[in-house]
């Protein structure tokens, strides 16, 4: 038995190396793909006995083998084909009532017929899996990923076969201090395969990722760079933007990389009023042994910069009329994950008079960002470095750094994304400053065309004077902070408040607000009534008008959202009730106060 186990362990180790962690492929939505969305079988494995033995040793014959009894006496204690199914993408919490509060391991499994193309490669792509995913194809491990809100892909060419195949994913959403986000957070810890699953068919060498954006300071210059999936020199790359009569031939260097700058005239810049995007196509010329590759995209061009306390879009001062949004379905909770959900949520923001949305507190799905670009909404995108992270843990930093990189690499060509946020409400301290300043540098080095910020806090006033002080001011381009006057503090004193933001940078109030139960009415000093929230918005907006350098706000929040930290029976019932819309999409009175205020900011 012991000898057999060691042979099996050895075999597994050898087989695992076949599928490497492949750099994130860019613009997957415009590639040759086969969707694996649909009904997947699932097994809830509270004690992870499909992965670990009773000595907590890793099993080489775990559930990922999808074993079937061969002889009558064979003992197999799981059978995916008989197990229940749920539609993927989704979260298990709202798909199976027994799993509403569940945090742990769930196995997902589906089989599929696939005919790999000769001479081509196949990537297995996940839009997101919360939180830890261990992915197996035909019983062989393809890879492991942590982080619930960013995409990842594996080259599974060597694991697939013509005909019947199966994929098995061990998903675990247990929280822990070292994770990103950490142990506690004010949103529902939806578990599962929450976004698209795709098989991506590409040539042996393909267009890995690329960036095409207007130079941050020079609106007459386009900067283009492209990285092949392999370090192949002398490959022909063609960039064409027919509407601009641009057709540029480029040749890759020894690293399989090209970059160039192009002078452009008569460019219609992207703006909320005119969300203009250009058709772009990228072609990788064929070689004798390899087919060509082609990717098309719709890309807008704009400049975003700061000048002192001013925020400038396309060189013009702009006020960000924003709202914060969680990635939850418009009606009734559950992870949002498609173009329809995105369109509905963003239409509500448009109704408010918004030109900007803060996608909190983690990268939302790609449909959300692309739909916002199409609808003329600028975006603040954030990684879940939220509250008190394990600042001195190297793995925690590597995790946060990877999420930042993947967030940027996925959306680097979305011109409506103007701000990368590296954190929310983090406690002051040396370790924190070191951690965050490294992330800020990484964001600036990775992407020179956008601004970097984070949500700081102003937790108290002395003698009605609020002063923001944060060492991180020098590492961000825009000073953003959350404040809850009227709700968590100084309930009656908004009108008396004065503000001091001693930094010569634009200011965004990234959160303010208060809760109300839709349909609950009463005196304006009665908590939880719509009148209380309405009054809070009236007083806060008047107070914010006094802030020097205020360049935008993203009140908390568009819609009531689920949170395990909100337990007031009959009012919260596991919902954070600070939405301007109820969880069923009904407008609360405060909605109209903000809409009116934004009218005046146009
Ligand atoms: C915080 C935090 C949010 C939270 C909100 C609240 O500021 O950033 O995630 O939901 O406050 O208390 O409602």
Morphology call:
globular
Identify the bound ligands: alpha-D-glucopyranuronic acid
- Record the strand order, biggest sheet: 22-23-24-25-26-28-30-31
The rounded distance between the terminal residues' Cα atoms is 75 Å
Subunit organisation of the chains: single chain
Derived from helix and strand composition plus strand pairing, the structural class reads alpha/beta
The number of helical runs is 7
Query: Nearest-angstrom radius of gyration?
Result: 25 Å
Number of strands: 33
Query: Would you identify the regions where 5 or more consecutive residues have pLDDT less than 50?
Result: 8-18
Overall residue-averaged pLDDT value: 95
Quote the beta fraction: 25-35%
Helix content: 10-25%
Largest sheet: 8 strands, parallel, barrel
What can you see in these coordinates?
There is one protein chain. The chain has 602 residues and is α/β, with parallel strands linked by helices. It is 16% helix and 30% strand. It contains 7 helices and 33 strands. It has helices at residues 2-16, 339-351, 366-375, 394-411, 430-446, 530-544, 589-599, and strands at 21-22, 33-35, 38-44, 85-88, 105-114, 120-126, 132-137, 140-146, 152-155, 163-172, 197-203, 207-214, 221-228, 236-241, 246-251, 257-263, 278-284, 293-299, 304-307, 310-313, 316-317, 320-325, 356-359, 378-382, 417-424, 451-457, 465-467, 479-482, 498-500, 507-511, 550-553, 561-562, 575-576. The strands form 8 sheets. Strands 22-23-24-25-26-28-30-31 form an 8-stranded parallel barrel, surrounded by 4 helices. The radius of gyration is 25 Å and the shape is globular. The model is unreliable at 8-18 (pLDDT under 50). It binds alpha-D-glucopyranuronic acid. Residues 186, 361, 424-425, 482, 511, 556, 576, 578 line the site of alpha-D-glucopyranuronic acid (GCU).
């Amino acid at each position: 038995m012991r000898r057999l186990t060691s042979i099996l362990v050895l075999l597994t180790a050898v087989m695992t190396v076949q599928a490497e962690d492949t750099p994130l492929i860019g613009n997957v939505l415009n590639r040759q793909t086969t969707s694996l969305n649909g009904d997947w079988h699932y097994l809830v494995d509270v004690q992870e006995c499909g992965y670990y033995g009773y000595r907590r040793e890793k099993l080489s014959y775990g559930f990922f083998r999808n074993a079937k009894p061969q002889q009558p006496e064979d003992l197999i204690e799981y059978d995916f084909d008989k197990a229940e199914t749920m539609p993927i993408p989704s979260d298990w919490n709202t798909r199976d009532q027994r799993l509403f509060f569940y945090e742990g391991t769930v196995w997902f499994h589906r089989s599929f017929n696939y005919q790999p193309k000769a001479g081509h490669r196949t990537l297995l792509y996940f839009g997101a899996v919360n939180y830890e995913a261990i992915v197996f194809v035909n019983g062989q491990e393809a890879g492991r990923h942590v982080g619930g809100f960013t995409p990842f892909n594996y080259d599974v060419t060597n694991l697939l076969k013509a005909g019947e195949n199966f994929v098995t994913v061990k998903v675990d959403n247990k929280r822990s201090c070292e994770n990103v986000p950490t142990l506690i957070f004010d949103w529902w810890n939806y578990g599962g395969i929450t976004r698209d699953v795709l098989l991506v068919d590409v040539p042996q060498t393909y267009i890995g990722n690329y960036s095409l954006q207007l130079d941050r300071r020079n609106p007459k210059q386009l900067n283009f760079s492209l990285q092949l999936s392999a370090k192949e020199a002398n490959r022909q790359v063609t960039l064409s933007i027919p509407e601009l009569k641009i057709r540029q031939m480029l040749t890759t260097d020894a690293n399989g990389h090209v970059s160039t700058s192009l002078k452009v005239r008569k460019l219609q810049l992207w703006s909320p009023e005119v969300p203009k995007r250009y058709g772009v196509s990228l072609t990788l010329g064929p070689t004798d042994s390899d087919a060509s590759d082609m990717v098309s995209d719709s890309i807008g061009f704009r400049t975003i910069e700061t000048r002192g306390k001013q925020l400038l879009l396309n060189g013009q001062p702009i006020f960000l009329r924003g709202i914060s949004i969680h990635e939850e379905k418009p009606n009734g909770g559950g992870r949002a994950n498609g173009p329809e959900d995105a369109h509905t949520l963003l239409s509500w923001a448009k109704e408010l008079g918004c030109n900007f949305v803060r996608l909190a507190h983690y990268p939302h799905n790609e449909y959300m960002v692309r739909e916002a670009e199409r609808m003329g909404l600028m975006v603040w995108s954030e990684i879940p470095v939220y509250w008190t992270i394990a600042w001195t843990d190297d793995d925690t930093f590597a995790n946060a750094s990877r999420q930042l990189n993947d967030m940027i690499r996925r959306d680097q060509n979305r011109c409506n994304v103007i701000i990368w946020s590296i954190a929310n409400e983090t406690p002051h301290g040396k370790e924190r400053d070191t951690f965050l300043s490294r992330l800020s540098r990484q964001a600036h080095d990775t992407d020179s065309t956008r601004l970097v910020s984070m949500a700081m806090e102003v937790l108290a006033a002395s003698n009605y004077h609020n002063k923001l002080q944060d060492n991180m001011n020098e590492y961000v381009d825009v000073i953003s902070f959350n404040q809850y006057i009227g709700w968590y503090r100084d309930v009656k004193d908004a009108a008396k408040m004065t503000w001091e933001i001693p930094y010569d940078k634009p200011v965004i109030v990234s959160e303010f607000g208060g809760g109300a139960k839709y349909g609950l009415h009463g005196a304006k000093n009665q908590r939880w009534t719509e009148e209380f929230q309405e009054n809070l918005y009236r007083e806060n907006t008047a107070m914010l008008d006094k802030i020097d350098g205020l360049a935008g706000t993203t009140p908390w929040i568009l819609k009531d959202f689920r949170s395990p930290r909100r337990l007031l029976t009959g009012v919260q019932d596991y919902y954070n009730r600070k939405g301007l819309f109820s969880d069923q999409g009904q407008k609360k009175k405060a909605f109209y106060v903000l809409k009116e205020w934004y009218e005046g900011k146009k």
